[in-house]
Amino acid sequence: MKESTEPETDTLHPFGKHSDWNESFYFNFYDKANDICAFMRIGLKPNINEKNMLCFFLSPEGDVIGTRGVEPFSDSELSIGGLKFERVVPDMEWRLRFKGSMKHTRGSEIHRQDTSFDLTFKAINKVFDYRESLPSGYSDLAEDLSPAEHNEQFGRVVGTATIGSKKYSIAGLGERDHAWGTTDWISPSTWIWLSGQFSERRAFNFTKLFIRREIVDAGFIHIDGVNRPIVKVNVVTEFNRSGGPESLRTWLTEPDGKVHEIEATIMRTVRLPFAGRIEKTVSVMYETLARFQMGDEIGYGIVEYLVRE
């Protein structure tokens, strides 16, 4: 995908000067019929000569099938380690492909497994810009992390996936985000990011970020064709013995004061450590499949917690 002067939100942006300037594209989905969840990300960090990726599947048996990789930054193509994202229709449709080997973890057993997929993400809602959630004139959320430059969108994901000898016809709902700016995984003490879909008519996404003395809330709830900004997020979390989230309850507040209460129960978890490049600090990201309940509606999606250890 090449840089463009077109007004769409999916274009690549001029590189910032900070060493941790990053541009990233992320996708997830949950196929209820197959009980399969997946998430994947490609990040570009040209100022430290780095292109990185991660791609993971959470299987019905509780297995984790995934891979992470880093390569020198040679171009701005969204392709690394067998994973490729291709924009098909601006702000609407993407093709997601992978072919290669992934680590398959079942309890204490680990082996390599050939994995491939060819998936299409088709948007349901209009792209939501996180700036719509922020106070007027609020330009930078934090010096070391700028999720203000952050777009979100949910959609349908269809296609095929092969994990070892098992082949799946994929059809589910999921989320994508596109973020750019200074991103340092070590700077926040905590961040919470949730995306969930109840149906093609109802979905939500939000971030709650804790960095230095700031707390930043941003996101949307989509109801019957309309993205409604979320300006305040309250979260109460129950953690397990490993330090990851086990369940949570959240209250999302719209600008007019309307509140939406959502409960989440964690179904499966991947634990991903991120080490600081300079400081001897490690943050751990818990990327989890969750079951959501809002009133009488049941949905599924991702609960993501980044915690500094």
CATH superfamily: AttH-like domain
Structural class: mainly beta
Output mean pLDDT.
89
State the distance separating the first and last CA atoms.
Answer: 36 Å
* Secondary structure tally, helices: 0
Biggest sheet strand order reads 15-14-13-12-20-19-18-17-16
The proportion of strand residues reads: over 45%
Number of strands: 20
**What best-fitting shape do the alpha-carbon axes yield?**
globular
* Relative helix content: under 10%
Uncertain ranges: 1-7, 141-148
Radius of gyration: 18 Å
Secondary-structure element order, N to C: EEEEEEEEEEEEEEEEEEEE
CATH class: Mainly Beta
Features:
single chain; 309 residues; mainly beta; nine-stranded antiparallel sheet; eight-stranded antiparallel β-barrel; 0% helix; globular
Describe the structure.
- The chain is mainly β and 309 residues long.
- It has a single domain, classed as AttH-like fold (Beta Barrel), CATH 2.40.370.10.
- It is 0% helix and 65% strand.
- It is built from no helices and 20 strands.
- The protein has strands at residues 21-31, 36-45, 50-58, 64-71, 79-80, 83-89, 93-106, 109-123, 128-129, 150-163, 166-182, 190-197, 202-211, 214-223, 226-230, 232-239, 245-253, 259-275, 282-294, 297-308.
- The strands form 2 sheets. It has a 9-stranded antiparallel sheet with strand order 15-14-13-12-20-19-18-17-16, with no helix packed on it.
- The chain is globular.
- The chain starts with 20 loop residues before the first strand and ends with a strand.
